[in-house]
Each structure stands twice: as C-alpha cells, then as structure tokens.
Amino acid sequence: MITAEQIEKFIAQAHRVGDAGLTVCSSGNLSWRIGEEALVSGTGSWVPSLTKEKIAVCRVADGEVLNGVKPSMESGFHLGILRERPDVDVVLHFQSPYATAVACMKEIPRNFNVTAEVPCHVGSVIPVIPYFRPGSPELAEQVKAALKDHNSCLLRKHGQVVCGKDFDQAFERAMFFEMACRIIVLSGGRYEVLSQEEIDDLETYILGKKP
C-alpha cells in the first residue's frame, strides 16, 4: 500500500526538481517505484507545484492505473524502464534550459565529457534519440532501449531522461547533465573533452574499478 508519507516524499522531490529549474510548468514528469507499484506525475500536472490529486498510482508490471488518476503521457517509458531495470527506482524526464538548447542544435555534440562529473555520474556515452512525438509509442520504445544499458539520454527537439536507484542519484545525473550542456553552450562550441585515457583513469581511481 502507498502511504501518505510516500506521497509527501514524492511531492517534495517533484518540487525539488522544479526549484532547480529542471522543469517549467507542465514540462517533464517523474516516477518512483514502490514495491510492485509506481507513483507517476499525472497528465498535465506541473512538476514544480505537484499536488497529491495529480499523482497516479500504477502497477509496474502492466501499467494499470490503480487510483483513477491518468498518468503522464510519457508513463510508457517510465514504467518500461522500471520493468527493464530492477536497479532503478526513479525516472525523471526534464527540460532544463541548456540541455534542451543542445537538444535543439542542428549539430548535437557527439561527446559530453567536458568535466569528470559527466562520465562519473551521467555516463561517458549519452544516447541521442531522434525526434518522435511526445507521448508516442515510438518515443517510449526508443527511450526504453536507450536506458536499458545507459542512465541518461537526450531527446532531439524535446528534452532529457535520466534514471537512478533513488531520487538523489537521478537528480544528480540531471544536474550534471545540465551543467555539461551549459559549458558546451557558453563556450560557443570551443570546448575540450576528457580523453578515453582520462576517463579510464577516473573509472580506476574514483569509481573503484580495476584496470
């Protein structure tokens, strides 16, 4: 059973996302797995000012709505990611200013590794998904496929998606994603990225992976 405390935690985390400028008005959506169910921000809801009346409770296994609140149009990839990734409990779709500016560039960067935080937290490779209509089955399938073995992706002319084991990890990935894109935009395209050797060095000594 979903508790009142869990609902309040979900609302607080949604407002945190909004306060950080990751979503504006009705842009973006958030989900949180709790056992066999998931809380999903509702269709048309404003994540920065989410209320309990706009939170859908869905069964993860088949997407059935359990409380009569229609979930976000992007619930297809939220629930799909949760089904594919037992290590993930939180999915965030956001549209932060600089990362969305990058998503709308004619030539999207192939490499986002401008600082160590990107490969350490966001991912050394960030899949870029072609434009599909928001809420479409095609978009849901593309996002699910991309996040099957990555933790973030960029949606062309749309926004971004990150996932994590908890709210903090998903939030951290979103914030560092936005930071990297801010560097890319403010540099006017004149930026350097970490070499593969430098990334491997991070994985060995910071992430604790053996060479």
How would you portray this structure in words?
- Residues 8-185 form the Class II aldolase/adducin N-terminal domain.
- GO terms for molecular function: aldehyde-lyase activity; metal ion binding.
- This is Class II Aldolase and Adducin domain protein.
- The protein is α+β, with helices and mostly antiparallel strands.
- The chain has a single domain (4-205), classed as Class II aldolase/adducin N-terminal domain (L-fuculose-1-phosphate Aldolase, 3-Layer(aba) Sandwich), CATH 3.40.225.10.
- The protein is 37% helix and 16% strand.
- The protein is built from seven helices and seven strands; from the N terminus they run αβββαβααβαββαα.
- It has a seven-stranded mixed beta sheet with strand order 3-2-1-4-7-6-5, sandwiched between helices.
- The longest helix is centred in the last third of the chain and has 20 residues, at 167-186.
- The radius of gyration is 17 Å and the shape is globular.
- The N and C termini lie far apart (45 Å).
